[in-house]
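Translate structure to sequence.
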């Protein structure tokens, strides 16, 4: 069977993939990398360069380098390169040609057919130009498919039931939100909204301004007006931006950036997130327009899929989850998902059976215990997730913590597995002390780094930011199982509640006093005690009120009993309040 490759011809980067055996598409490396910059240039001897080499020479030779040609597709223009001029289709054909030959080397056979993806908003002229670019590269473009369709195929190929999927695609230069409906393998883009000039490049620009402005103030030199310095700055901030996706700080250090001046700046994720927040808000507005066009409410969405390198910025998933109430999926690499989906389409067209992509993910969240607020009270048992469940493996994340009091020299680092808001409700994985921190005021910065490999081995490093003092401990998470500990805890609490009822029957209202293992139990104990005293009042009142109020009180009491048994403390708190309001009104 002749292979039909899938190509994501992107604004910033391009990828090529194919599906040889049933199951998972392979991403074909180009010069050892899965992502090839969509960059074309000419070297000093007039030779054509495509991909990484072209991008690398951009700093030294920006006039002879073309970036983001996808933005010009469909326009009747030519761009100079060396002593010639090329149309956007021709420039794109150089990119496609390089991908094709990398695939031929990798597969050891000729590659003649391809599925190429385009944004959903591409018009006829732009689609035609893409097809022509393929032909110029020696490819038979068997199908042009929309990028959101390809992304949906990667997750959902082979599924029969109806799915409504929001594809949130934030790349280097463009943003797209699309609503896709899928049933029996048929994918339909129901609506699409976006901004063709919004993406990671804008984040880079904000970061460069943030760095260049103080430099100008200090030295009177505008880094942006010097082409070479500006390019070095751009490369450095882009790298820092990626670092901030996994770590709370990034350093930008460029020696002799202009004359004998060095650039040395540290940026925190918090500062960076504040910079880009207004741009991300614009993307959320587009998401809502998209829903409105398709006449869907957010709750009609079954899945959110993240596409494009910029969706690695953690604030993106956070904003989407806050707004839509669903955790977005990021199991499949957001840079590669479109090419992989195109490969699935290609395989289906060549007659192969296709399935959704399977990836190695961690089914558990890992985090630590810290001091924080829970249900309006401070507790030392707040759970702070660091690696989120469903992250593709291997994965590494770093978060920032602070010492709690002045001259705190020791910290106990505790690691848990689970998603409960309180650490003690999760499965304990391990702990260690880091001792000998410098004598500093409360708020001394501590970096906690978690690295989880494909075998479930978790490497935990805690480091004092100011001195670099660090301790690393390796923990095996693989046999921590599926929540037995949690089940144990649940049954503990349930039996505790039963005992508590017995004590109450004996007329003792203090129950559970010796079961104090920290703020959590005390917190719950407060809620339980209040529920008990409200129950007593309510039960005393029921015989004397009208039928409707009696039914309502009984219902509230029953719901509260169930919420306590399910240790749903948020609901217990709310029901306590409702009961108290109702009793207040009835007693009046
Ligand atoms: P794409 O157009 O999908 O290839 O996305 C490229 C954009 O993603 C560029 O702006 C990159 O700087 C950005 N990007 C890639 N990796 C990361 C990352 N780890 N965190 C934030 N942005 C990233």
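Result:
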């Amino acid at each position: 069977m002749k292979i039909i490759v899938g190509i994501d011809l992107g604004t910033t980067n391009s990828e090529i993939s194919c599906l040889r055996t049933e199951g998972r598409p392979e991403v074909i490396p180009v010069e050892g990398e899965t992502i090839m910059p969509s960059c074309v240039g000419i070297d000093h001897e007039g030779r054509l360069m495509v991909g990484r080499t072209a991008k690398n020479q951009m700093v030294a030779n920006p006039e002879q380098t073309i970036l983001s040609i996808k933005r010009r597709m469909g326009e009747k223009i030519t761009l100079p390169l060396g002593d010639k001029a090329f149309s956007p289709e021709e420039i794109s054909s150089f990119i496609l040609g390089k991908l094709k030959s990398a695939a031929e080397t990798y597969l050891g056979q000729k590659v003649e057919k391809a599925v190429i993806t385009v944004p959903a908003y591409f018009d006829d002229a732009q689609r035609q130009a893409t097809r022509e670019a393929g032909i110029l590269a020696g490819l038979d473009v068997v199908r042009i498919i929309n990028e959101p369709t390809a992304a949906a195929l990667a997750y959902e190929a082979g599924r029969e039931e109806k799915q409504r999927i929001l594809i949130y695609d934030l790349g280097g230069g463009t943003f797209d939100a699309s609503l896709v409906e899928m049933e029996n393998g048929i994918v339909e883009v129901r609506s699409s909204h976006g901004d063709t000039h919004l993406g990671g490049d804008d984040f880079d620009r904000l970061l460069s301004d943030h760095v260049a402005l103080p430099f100008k103030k200090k030295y009177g030199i505008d880094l942006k007006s010097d082409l070479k310095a500006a390019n070095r700055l751009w490369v450095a901030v882009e790298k820092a931006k990626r670092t901030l996706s996994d770590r709370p700080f990034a350093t930008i250090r460029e020696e002799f950036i202009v004359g004998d001046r060095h650039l040395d700046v540290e940026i925190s994720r918090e500062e960076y997130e504040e910079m880009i927040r207004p741009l991300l808000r614009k993307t959320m507005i587009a998401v809502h327009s998209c829903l409105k066009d398709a006449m869907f409410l957010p709750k009609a969405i079954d899945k959110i899929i993240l596409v494009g390198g910029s969706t690695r910025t953690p604030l993106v998933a956070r904003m989407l989850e806050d707004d839509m109430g669903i955790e977005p999926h990021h199991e499949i690499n957001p840079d590669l998902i479109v090419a992989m989906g195109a490969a699935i389409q290609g395989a289906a067209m060549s007659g192969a059976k296709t399935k959704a992509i399977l990836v190695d993910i961690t089914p558990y969240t890992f985090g630590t215990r810290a001091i924080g607020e829970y249900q309006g009270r401070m507790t030392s048992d707040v759970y702070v997730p660091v690696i989120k469940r469903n992250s593709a493996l291997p994965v590494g994340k770093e978060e920032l913590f602070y010492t709690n009091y002045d001259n705190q020299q020791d910290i106990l680092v505790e690691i848990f597995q689970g998603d409960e808001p309180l650490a003690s409700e999760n499965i304990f994985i391990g702990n260690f002390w880091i001792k000998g921190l410098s004598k500093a005021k409360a708020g001394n910065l501590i970096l906690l780094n978690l690295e989880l490999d494909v075998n479930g081995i978790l490497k935990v490093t805690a480091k004092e930011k100011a001195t670099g003092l660090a301790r690393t401990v390796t923990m095996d998470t693989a046999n921590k199982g599926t929540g037995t500990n949690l089940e144990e805890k649940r049954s503990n609490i349930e039996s505790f509640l039963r005992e508590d009822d017995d004590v109450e029957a004996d007329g003792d209202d203090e129950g559970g006093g010796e079961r104090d293992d920290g703020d959590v139990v005390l917190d719950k104990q407060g809620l339980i005690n209040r529920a008990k005293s409200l129950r007593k009042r309510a039960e005393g009142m029921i015989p004397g009120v009208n039928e409707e109020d009696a039914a309502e009180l009984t219902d509230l009491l029953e719901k509260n009993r169930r919420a306590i048994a399910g240790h749903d403390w948020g609901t217990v708190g709310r029901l306590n309040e409702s009961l108290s309001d109702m009793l207040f009104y009835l007693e009046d």
